[in-house]
Write a structure and sequence with these properties.
11 helices; 8 strands; eight-stranded mixed beta sheet; alpha/beta; Rossmann fold; globular
C-alpha cells in the first residue's frame, strides 16, 4: 500500500490482528520490506505488523539527494502518524537499527520497545573511504558491481555457497535498489555517531547480532549493550549480517520471546 508521509510516497504493509500492539519492521540498506518475510508468520499471529520500504528503496520514492538519519527517522515518524499509530515496538536491522536509535532519541514516547539487529551506534572515521567507494561505484556503474561483494559480507561463506532462495531473493533486492536511494542512504549511514547519546534510551531494548557479522561486528553490539541500561544481548551462531534470514528460527525465537515479555 502507498501513503504520503514527510513529502514522499511510502510503500508499506500492515498485517495481523487490528487490535494488537504494533510492531514496526525497518530493513537494511539495499533490501526492501521483503527482507522480513521469515519473521512475518510468527509476528502476525500475535501482533499488528507494519513493514515499510525506507526512502530510496523498494516501492518508496528515491529522490536524488544526500539523506540523513534524522530525515529517515522523520520519515518513519510521519508514516506512523499518517497511519494513526501512537506507539510501536521497533525492530530495525542494520540501517533500520540506526533509524531506530535516532528516532528513539528524538521521540521516545513512540517506543514500547526497541530491537536493534546487526547494527551499530557509530561508523568510525576510518570506514569513510569504504562508504565513499561504494557511493562512487553506484554513481558511475550502478548496483551490479556491488551485488556479489555485498552478499559475501552479509552471509557466511557456507550459506552463500549453498545459494538457494534466500541468496537469490537478496541478490534481486540489491540489484533492484535505485542507485539514487542507495547513495542517499550510504551518505546517511556514514554520518552515524550516536554512541555517546544512546545511554538516554529508556525503552526496553533487545540487541541481536550474528557472531560472524563483518559489517557491524559483535563488538559494536557489545558497546550498545553497555550503553543502553538494562538491554539484552543475543549473539546468533552461524550467522553474518542478515541474521534474520540466515538463522530465521533462532532470530524469530529471540525476537518473539522478548516482545512477549514487554508487550
Amino acid at each position: 500500500m502507498k501513503i504520503t508521509a514527510n513529502g514522499i510516497s511510502m510503500n508499506y504493509t500492515l498485517d495481523g490482528p487490528a487490535s494488537a500492539p504494533v510492531v514496526t519492521l525497518s530493513h537494511s540498506l539495499a533490501t526492501t520490506l521483503e527482507m522480513w518475510q521469515p519473521q512475518l508468520k510468527a509476528l502476525t499471529a500475535r501482533w499488528r505488523v507494519l513493514s515499510y520500504d525506507t526512502r530510496g528503496h523498494g516501492g518508496t520514492d528515491a529522490p536524488k539527494a544526500a539523506y540523513t538519519l534524522d530525515q529517515l527517522a522523520d520519515d518513519a515518524q510521519a508514516l506512523l502518524r499518517a497511519l494513526g499509530i501512537p506507539r510501536t515496538h521497533w525492530v530495525g536491522l542494520s540501517m533500520g537499527g540506526m533509524i531506530g536509535q535516532t528516532l528513539a532519541l528524538k521521540a521516545p514516547e513512540l517506543f514500547a520497545s526497541l530491537t536493534l539487529c546487526d547494527t551499530s551506534s557509530r561508523i568510525p572515521p576510518e570506514a569513510k573511504p569504504l562508504w565513499d567507494e561504494r557511493i562512487h561505484t553506484a554513481e558511475t556503474k550502478g548496483m551490479e558491481p556491488l551485488v556479489e561483494g555485498t552478499l559475501s559480507r552479509w552471509f557466511t561463506g557456507p550459506f552463500k555457497e549453498r545459494g538457494g532462495a534466500v541468496i537469490e531473493s537478496v541478490r534481486g533486492m540489491i540489484r533492484s535498489t535505485p542507485p539514487s536511494g542507495y547513495i542517499g542512504c550510504c551518505q546517511a549511514i556514514s554520518g552515524l555517531n550516536l554512541t555517546d547519546r544512546i545511554g538516554a534510551i529508556k525503552a526496553p531494548t533487545l540487541i541481536i547480532v550474528g557472531e560472524d557479522d563483518q559489517g557491524t561486528p559483535v563488538a559494536a553490539s557489545k558497546v550498545m549493550n553497555e550503553k543502553i541500561h538494562g538491554s539484552q544481548l543475543v549473539i546468533l551462531k552461524s550467522a553474518a549480517h542478515l541474521s534474520n534470514m540466515e538463522q530465521p528460527d533462532a532470530f524469530t525465537s529471540a525476537l518473539t520471546g522478548f516482545l512477549g515479555k514487554v508487550s
